[in-house]
Amino acid sequence: MFTPIPAATAKTGRAEHHYPCESCGADLRFAPGQERLVCDYCGHVQDIPHATGRGTSGLRELPLAAGLRADLPEPEIEEHRTLSCPNCGASIEITGASHATDCPFCATPVVTDTGTRRLIKPQGLVPFTLTEAEARAALGRWLGRLWFAPSGLAQYARRGRKMTGVYAPFWTFDAASRTEYTGQRGDYYYETRQVRVNVNGRSEMRSEQVRKIRWHRVSGRVTRAFDDVLIYAARSLPPGYVQALQPWDLSGLTAYRPDYLAGFSAEGYTVDLQEGHPLARAEMIRVIQSDVRRDIGGDEQRIDRMAPEFSAETFKHILLPVWTAAYKYRGRSFRFVVNAQTGQVRGDRPWSAWKIALAVVLVLALIAAGVYLGEVSGQGGY
Predict the structure, then answer these.
(1) Helices (H) and strands (E) in the chain, counts
(2) What pLDDT shows up at residue 355?
(3) Is the dihedral of CA 325, 104, 19, 75 positive or negative?
(4) CA proximity to 125, closest of 174, 93, 172
(5) Phi then psi dihedrals of residue 371, to 5 deg
(6) Contacts within 8 Å (CB) and 24+ apart, 21-26
(7) Which of 79, 120, 136, 340 has the CB geometry, 3.0–4.6 Å to 12, for a possible disulfide?
(8) d(CA 66, CA 47)
(9) In terms of DSSP bridges, do strands 202-232 and 36-38 run parallel, antiparallel, or are they unpaired?
C-alpha cells in the first residue's frame, strides 16, 4: 500500500501529487486500460488505492445557478498554474518546477504564465483506455487510408514518434424541460389533373397525381429530461475535431482522483461555465425542436412558436482522454488527435502533390484511351 506525497507549491499553495515507486522511488504513471500505476524505470506495478467503480451515478452534480453566480463552495475551487499557447490557445496545467514546454496540440514552444487561475475542480474523468502504442497504431491506420497523403508521413508517424496524453476539459449539463408550442401540421393529399403528353409523335391527354398539402393549426406541450449534454470547454481543438472524436461513452466516467493524471497532462478550461451554458442550451433546443415536430405529426411541420422552460439544472466539470501528436514533415506541421477511449482519429488532411498529379495523368490517359477506342470502333463500322 502507498500514499501520494503532496507537495505545496510556493506560489499557489496547491498540492501537487507525486506517486513514488515502492521499489526504486521514481515517479509512477497511470497505466491506460488498467486500475494501476506503473514505474517506467523498474517495471514495478501498484494498484490505485480505493479505485472506484465506473458510471455517472456516484458523481457530484453541482447546482448551475450557483456556478453561474460564481458562488460555489470553496472546496469546489482550486488554483492552477498554467501555460497558455500563443498559437492554438490551449491552457495546460503545469506542476513541479517546469517553466517551458511544447504545446501538446500544435508543438508550439510556450513559457509558463506567471499568474494562477482559480478553476472549478473536475468532478469526474474517463481514464485512458488506449496506450500510446495503440493510439499510434490507430493514427497509422488512419493515415494509411488517405490515398492522397504523403507516403512518408505515415511512416514518420509510425517511427516511434512520441504522442502526448492529455485530459481535455468538458462541461456536462443536466436539466428538466417543459415546452409549450404552436405550429402547423401539413398532411399530404392528391388531386388528379389532365396533362397533354407526346407519345410516339402524337399528342395525348393523360391523368397524373399532383401532391398538395393541407395545413392545420396545432398547439401542444412536450417535456424532455436532459442528462450529460456535453460541451467542450476549450478552444485548442477546432469544432470539427471535437465532433469527429465523438461519441464518448460516459458510462466510463469515474470520480476524479489525481492518480489517473499521473504521467499525463491536463488542459485547463478556457470556455468558462457562463459561456458553455448557452452552447448547451442551444443543443437542448435543437432536441426540443425535434420533439415538437414529432409531437405535431403529419407529413410536414411548421413551428411558429416555442417557449421552453428549464428547471433542476445542474452541471459537472469532467476530463476526457485524448492522445495528441503534432508532426513537422518536410517543413509543414500536421496535427492529429486520437480519442483515447475509442480510437477515433482526426487530424490535418495532408495532400501529396505528386499523387494528385499522377491521378490526373491516369484519368486523362483513360479518357484518351476511351476516345481512341471509340474512333477505331467507328472506323471499323464502314
Answers:
(1) 6, 18
(2) 45
(3) negative
(4) 172
(5) -65, -45
(6) 21/46, 22/46
(7) 79
(8) 37
(9) unpaired
Mean pLDDT by 10 residues, the chain (382 residues): 40 51 69 74 69 57 95 87 74 60 72 70 93 88 65 58 88 98 96 84 84 96 97 91 91 88 86 96 97 97 97 96 81 82 81 46 55 55 48
Distance CA 68, CA 278 (A): 11
Tell me how far apart the alpha carbons of residues 92 and 321 are, in angstroms, rounded to a whole number: 14
C-alpha cell at 45: 506495478
CB of 88 closer than 8 Å to CB of 106: yes
Do the Cβ atoms of 62 and 69 come closer than 8 Å? no
Grid cell digits, residue 219:
398547439
Helix-strand-coil percent breakdown of the chain, rounded to 5? 25, 40, 30
User: What is the pTM for the complete model shown?
Assistant: 0.78
Q: Which of 25, 48, 3, 1 is nearest to 259 (CA)?
A: 48
Question: What's the angle, vertex CA 78, arms to CA 228 and CA 67, rounded to 5?
Answer: 45
End-to-end CA distance of the chain: 94
Q: Which three cell numbers stand for residue 356?
A: 494528385
pLDDT of residue 15: 46
What span, in angstroms and rounded, lies between the C-alpha atoms of 131 and 27? 18
Contact between 127 and 318 under an 8 Å Cβ cutoff? The reply is: no
What size, in residues, is the chain? 382
Residues 6+ positions from 216 with CB-CB distance below 8 Å: 184, 185, 187, 298
The Cα 260–Cα 175 span in angstroms is 29
Count of CB atoms situated within 10 Å of the CB of 230:
18
- Give the separation between CA 244 and CA 238, rounded to whole angstroms: 10
The partner residues of 226 in beta bridges, in order of sequence, read 175
pLDDT of res. 17: 58
The torsion region of residue 97 among left (phi > 0), alpha (psi -120 to 50) and beta comes to: alpha
